[in-house]
Amino acid sequence: MRIRLRPTETAFYDFFSQAANNLVTGADILGELSLADPDFQSISDRLQDIEHANDDVTHALLRKLNSTFVTPFDREDIYRLGSLLDDVMDHMEGAGNLIYLYGLSQLPALPREMHELIETLSRAAVLTAAAMPRLQSLKDLEAYWIEANEIENEGDHAYRMLLVRLFSGEYDTLTVMKLKEVADELEAAADAFEHVANTVETIAVKES
To answer: How far apart are CA 177 and CA 44, in angstroms?
Structure first.
């Protein structure tokens, strides 16, 4: 039987949990776009604030990684997981910012399929935040990455249906281009959530 001597340092797990909780906050802010009268500027500004806060967490994690001789699991996996959590936030912030900067608030309403895609991000964020504390023990994680994959598949479907809507002729060409760029950011966030789950699975397999 293999015996692994793992350091008791919990800082890395704390950083992962902080980043994942920031994603829940970011997804909640992005979800305000579904309100009857959303404040688009406030949404964009607060997403920028939480994105900056998440950058601070990522930088702190990398500083810790560079100054730690023995890490709880592979350094490359720690770096990848931290970077992917940051990528999710970058894409969510990018989507909210583009909606505001492109003046899409002038539309009667954002496409229903876009709201559906945002809802999958909210579910993925809550799922990810719940899983991060279990990373230290590496227990009860399989259900996490299975569900994360299922949510990402739902996000892919919502994205494809959104593209169908955008190219249906309902919107003028310039609006389609703007909405497509927002949709791409949201879809990239959904993909990044799945990449986070895949990285957790890789870590669990390596450490088992």
So the answer is: 19
Residue with tokens 């899983």: 131
Which candidate, 118, 113, 151, 114, places its Cα nearest to that of 31? Answer: 118
Task: Output the pLDDT for position 2.
Answer: 42
- Say which amino acid occupies 174: L
Contacts with 17 (C-beta within 8 Å, 6 or more apart), sequence order: 129, 132, 133
Rounded distance, CA 78 to CA 13, Å? 10
Query: Residues 62-69: what's their mean pLDDT?
Result: 91
DSSP 33-71: GGSSS--HHHHHHHHHHHHHHHHHHHHHHHHHHHH-SS-
Nearest Cα to 125, choosing from 37, 49, 200, 193? 193
DSSP assignment of 164-191 equals HHHTTTSS-HHHHHHHHHHHHHHHHHHH
CA R_g for the chain: 18
**Average pLDDT of every residue of the chain:** 93
Residue 7: pLDDT above 70? no
Structure tokens at 60: 């702190």
Task: Mention every residue, 6+ apart, whose C-beta is less than 8 A from residue 83.
Answer: 58
